[in-house]
């Protein structure tokens, strides 16, 4: 217990919390944007979509199916050569955020596709019948109509990314997961471990409640 108070006073607990939030925000910002684009492309290029293109759909579907199942701990190591070429390093916080954003992109792409497929085809056909072009239909009908399910999907993705941040320590990153491992598990201090775990639970619960509330409001429009 005394060590936990010492970690609070030294600012290390707060620093680890900030690192986790930074990782998640960067991953959701970059990965969420790329995933949205990929997911929309998967939806509209599939057979019967707004812009059907079997070759495009096949390539995108293959990429998502290839990268999405890879365990994050293995993906981190596999991405190191690419990370060195893109961001100049394969370790530390930059690498952790790069890997998180990369993994989130493909996971979110599938979530976006699945949620957009719930939009009624009749609504899309009505927009096309009124003269709306493909891009306008996507931006003003497809995405807005699927916004409620999309919020729930992104909430799920946020929680998954929080889980993945626990692996950042293996490449020299920080965060609450590494904090719990370094100062709790390795030093046989359950107070530190459970403090980090409980804080992660609080963050996840708050995001889940917020996501549910926003989705419920959108679905009642």
UniProtKB/TrEMBL annotation:
It is found in: Cell membrane. Its main location: membrane. GO terms for cellular component: plasma membrane. CDD domains: TM_PBP2. The chain crosses the membrane at residues 20-45, 57-83, 95-112, 151-171, 191-215. Keywords: Cell membrane, Membrane, Transmembrane, Transmembrane helix, Transport. The keyword Transmembrane applies. GO terms for biological process: D-methionine transmembrane transport. It comes from the Bacteria. Residues 17-211 form the ABC transmembrane type-1 domain. InterPro entries: AA_ABC_Transporter_Permease (IPR051322), MetI-like (IPR000515), MetI-like_sf (IPR035906). It is a multi-pass membrane protein. Gene3D superfamilies: MetI-like. Belongs to the binding-protein-dependent transport system permease family. This is ABC transporter permease subunit. It comes from Leucobacter insecticola.
């Amino acid at each position: 217990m005394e060590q936990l108070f010492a970690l609070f006073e030294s600012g290390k607990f707060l620093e680890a919390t900030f690192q986790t939030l930074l990782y998640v925000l960067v991953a959701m910002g970059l990965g969420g944007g790329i995933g949205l684009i990929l997911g929309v492309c998967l939806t509209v290029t599939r057979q019967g979509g707004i812009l059907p293109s079997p070759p495009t759909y096949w390539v995108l579907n293959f990429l998502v199916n290839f990268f999405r199942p890879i365990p994050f701990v293995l993906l981190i190591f596999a991405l190191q050569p690419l990370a060195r070429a893109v961001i100049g390093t394969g370790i530390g916080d930059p690498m952790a955020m790069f890997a998180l954003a990369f993994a989130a992109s493909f996971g979110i792409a599938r979530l976006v596709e699945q949620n957009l497929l719930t939009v009624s085809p009749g609504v899309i056909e009505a927009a096309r019948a009124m003269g709306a072009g493909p891009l306008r239909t996507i931006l003003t009908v497809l995405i807005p109509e699927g916004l409620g399910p999309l919020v729930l999907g992104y909430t799920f993705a946020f929680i998954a990314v929080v889980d993945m941040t626990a692996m950042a320590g293996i490449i020299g990153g920080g965060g609450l997961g590494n904090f719990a491992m370094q100062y709790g598990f390795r030093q046989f201090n359950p107070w530190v471990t459970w403090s980090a775990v409980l804080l992660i639970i609080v963050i996840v619960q708050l995001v889940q409640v917020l996501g549910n509330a926003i989705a419920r409001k959108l679905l009642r429009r």
